[in-house]
Specification:
Layout lengths: L22 H9 L3 H9 L8 E2 L5 E4 L5 H4 L22 H4 L3 E6 L22 E6 L5 E7 L2 E8 L9 E5 L6 H15 L14 H14 L4 H9 L1 H7 L6 H17 L9
Parallel strand pairs: 2-4, 3-6
Antiparallel strand pairs: 1-2, 3-7, 4-5, 5-6
Helix pairs in contact: 1-9, 6-7, 6-9, 7-8, 7-9
């Protein structure tokens, strides 16, 4: 199976390249390389479920039934493992995401109920990629996907995702307060208007990127030295490979081990 150039050591920052990846994107990149996942996808019926793109850009998957086999991998439904992150969405299940914002949407049906001071929100106010799944419980889960971070939002009481609403955020208890506060801060950043004079300078998560390259090279049967050359370049490997510290050798082995671990199930830790 050939993988997209997203794992290439020469990949550059782009809207759908590694520099734009949030943790859920990295999780998908490792999962889609898992041979057991690919076998389950091959055996699934249907292999693909159609999703729609709403006018505000949100990509929506509506499910009429559950797919337990896909849920075991942390997904609402199977996604095609040949398609890289950001090109087509992987709809992560609420149970896999674990930390999420609970939101109750109050619709402005009665003017007296929502005074002028009440701020109404719409999904389009969040200036990041958005993928949403509506399961058999009819409760939308929206994954806000910013560069380097994401926020899952469960929205109760919203009949249509395109409607504006007054948000009421719910906290599960004092033990949940710190986690919710961090997620809400992140969500607020997603809704802030960008500075017109600023440029996006987010960086690739180097360790995950190198682990993914190491995994691909290992799957292709490359030696540790060949893997190191792909990641660090031939000049550096020639200078350091036989050095007394064995640093480059050990680091390459650890990257292969980490990539394999993430592929075999560790990807779930990236969704926390």
């Amino acid at each position: 199976m050939k993988y997209a150039a997203a794992a290439s050591s020469g990949a550059t920052a782009s809207h759908d390249g590694p520099a734009a990846f949030d943790p859920s994107d990295w999780a998908w990149e490792f999962l889609r390389r898992n041979p057991d996942y690919r076998a389950d996808w091959q055996a699934s019926v249907p292999r693909r479920l159609s999703h729609v793109t709403l006018k505000d850009g949100t990509r929506l998957l509506r499910l009429r039934r559950r797919y337990p086999r896909a849920e075991r991998w942390g997904l609402y439904a199977f996604a095609d493992p040949s398609v890289p992150a950001r090109r087509a969405p992987a709809f992560w299940h609420l149970d896999a995401l674990q930390r999420f914002v609970r939101l109750r949407a109050e619709l402005p049906a009665e003017p007296t109920k929502h005074p002028k001071s009440t701020t109404l929100l719409a999904l389009s106010d969040f200036r990041v990629d958005r993928v949403a799944a509506i399961g058999v419980d009819n409760v939308p889960l929206v994954l806000m996907k910013g560069p380097g971070s994401h926020v899952p939002v469960e929205i109760c009481g919203l009949a249509a995702l395109s409607l504006p609403f007054a948000p009421v955020f719910e906290i599960g208890g004092l033990a949940d307060l710190n986690a919710q506060t961090e997620l809400l801060k992140r969500l607020h950043r997603f809704a802030e208007a960008p500075n017109p004079g600023s440029r996006s300078t987010f960086a690739i998560d180097e360790r995950l990127h190198h682990a993914l390259i190491a995994l691909d090279e290992s799957i292709a049967g490359k030696t540790y030295r060949q893997i190191a050359i792909t990641i660090y370049g031939e000049k550096r490997v020639a200078e350091e490979w036989q050095g007394p510290s064995q640093f480059l050798k050990d680091r390459t082995r650890r990257l292969v081990a980490k990539g394999t671990e993430l592929m075999k199930g560790g990807y779930r830790e990236l969704l926390l």
